Amino acid sequence: MKLFQQLLVAPAALGLMAPVAATAAELNINGVSEYSSSAEVQGINQFSDVYPTDWAHQALTNLAERHGCVASAPNGSMTRYEAAALLNKCLGQVAQVNEEERRLLNEFAPELAVIKGRLDGLESRVGEFEAGVFSTTTKLSGKTTFVVGAAQQDQPDGSMTNTEALTFTYDTQIALDSSFSGSDLFKTVVRAGNVTDTDPFSNSGTVPLEINSEATESNNLTVVRSYYQFPIGDDFTATVGAKVRQDDMLGVWPSAYPSDSITDVLTYAGANAAYPLSEGAGAGITYAKDNLSASLLVVTEEADANNAGAGILSAEGSDDLTAQLAWIGDGFTLAAAYTMSDAGCNDEDNAGAALACSVAEMQQDYSAWGFSGVYEFENESTWVPASVSAGFGFKSLDTEDDANNAEDESTWSIGVIWENVGVDGNSLGFAYGTAEGHRDDDPYDDPMTYEVYYSIPVSDNITVTPAYFYVEKDGVEEDVSGGLVKTTFTF
To answer: Cα(57)–Cα(352) distance, rounded to whole angstroms?
Structure first.
């Protein structure tokens, strides 16, 4: 019997034997629990039916001493069910019994039948439970992230500092990975968190975190992934889903930074517009052979029935079409990506009258290129980085509005990771890049950001990561600096 079954059998057996207790008021339920579990029984006392003067009591004493199935032999009276439980425990794994033991089995046969019948039935139901909750090809995994931190920003007039309060943010993700053929994947992810609109770490704050998403704003469980991925022949892989993200369908992710994510802006391989990580209904196909990888995919953010008038590849819907071509070499990966994003803004209405797009729609209606790569070093020296990642991206708006800063933009970043720093297993990460898309404006001061983190795996399932970040603003707002401690639990 497996440990899981044993843990369930003992307490559940007590409930199953309740009818017996109703007809035999003298039954000591605790005694039966002790003998029917796998834990070592410490002794037998407070009994009432089988007395020390009975032959059965002496036979049971000899049995316990001979097989060593309890810590101490019975030294007081016991009920017949407790005697049967002791007999069942001591002889359950014995191939042959002697004459005295056979006499005991005959004597307590009715009680043994009740105990063994109920335990066997319960064990069978435990087996059904284990086999029925999840299929044998389904894996359940989870991750919870705690972030405690704060940020400080000077007031524009320099008269005082605006110190944000210390905040405690969490993000929980539960993933189910299923396979029906051994080579396919059906993925479901449920997510919840407590990110709010309060600075500094909110989705619209001064320093959004990588763990942020719309699903982490309400403390409610939300399905954030629901897609199916399967091979087509030897070289193609297809993905289709009602909830899928851009990077789920890409053949490669051309960056090793960060291994432990902190701020959000530095997690897009330097090409933030080409890799927007858009999420919604989508489909894609990837060709991979030898060193070459090529992907083509589309994501529609407004494909459900809640968005009236919008739909997949419709004029009113928001669609992102991405093509990626990558080369995977010995220790390095290089990739070029092209994304065409349609914000769903029509140039004219049904009557043909011209319509004006909002600034937000203009900024999400664009074409973008991205060039990114990563090189991983094979060197055991802690001074040599384990990996260096870098990327550059350019975004060209379909419609510009210079007065409202709806203009072409560029982004770039570089990230470096060192392994086994200080203590084996610990890693150090540093990144520097654009804090937002840079525009060709005067006197626009290109904002930059950097972060440094130190990842400490305190166990196989818990990692603690202190980090510091600094955001250079655009010359109008003052710079932002701050720190946080992130704790990641995997299970």
So the answer is: 100
Helix locations, 207-251, DSSP H: none
Cα–Cα distance for residue pair 417/386, rounded to 1 Å: 6
Q: Say whether both 65 and 103 belong to one domain.
A: yes
How many CB atoms sit inside 10 A of residue 165's CB?
9
The model's pTM: 0.69
Same-domain pairing of 199 and 121: no
Q: What is the DSSP code (8-state) at residue 68?
A: T
Among residues 111, 132, 153, the one where a domain terminates is: 132
DSSP three-state, residue 11: helix
First to last CA, the chain: 25
For β-strands 222-232 and 236-245, DSSP reports them as: antiparallel
Beta bridge partner(s), residue 281? 300
Per-residue pLDDT of the chain (491 residues; tens, 9 = 90+): 333 333 333 333 333 333 333 333 333 334 333 433 333 333 444 335 787 778 888 888 887 877 777 655 566 778 888 888 888 888 766 667 788 878 888 888 887 777 777 666 655 555 555 555 556 688 899 999 999 999 888 665 555 555 667 889 899 999 999 999 889 999 999 999 888 766 678 777 788 889 887 777 778 889 999 999 999 999 999 999 999 999 999 999 999 999 888 999 999 999 999 999 999 999 999 999 999 999 999 999 876 656 555 666 666 667 899 999 999 999 999 999 999 998 766 555 444 444 567 666 666 789 999 999 999 998 777 789 999 999 999 999 877 666 666 788 999 999 999 999 999 999 999 999 999 888 877 667 789 999 999 999 999 999 999 999 999 887 667 888 999 999 999 99
Q: Are residues 350 and 445 in the same domain?
A: yes
Give the chain's domain count. 2
In sequence order, the 6+-apart residues with CB closer than 8 A to the CB of 77 are 47, 48, 49, 50, 51, 52, 57
What CA–CA distance (Å, rounded) separates 462 from 181? 33
Query: Residue 23 is part of which domain span?
Result: 3-132
CA 411 to chain centre: 29
Same domain for 75 and 181, yes or no, is no
Same domain, 143 and 32: no
E strands in 77-235: 138-154, 161-163, 167-178, 185-193, 222-232
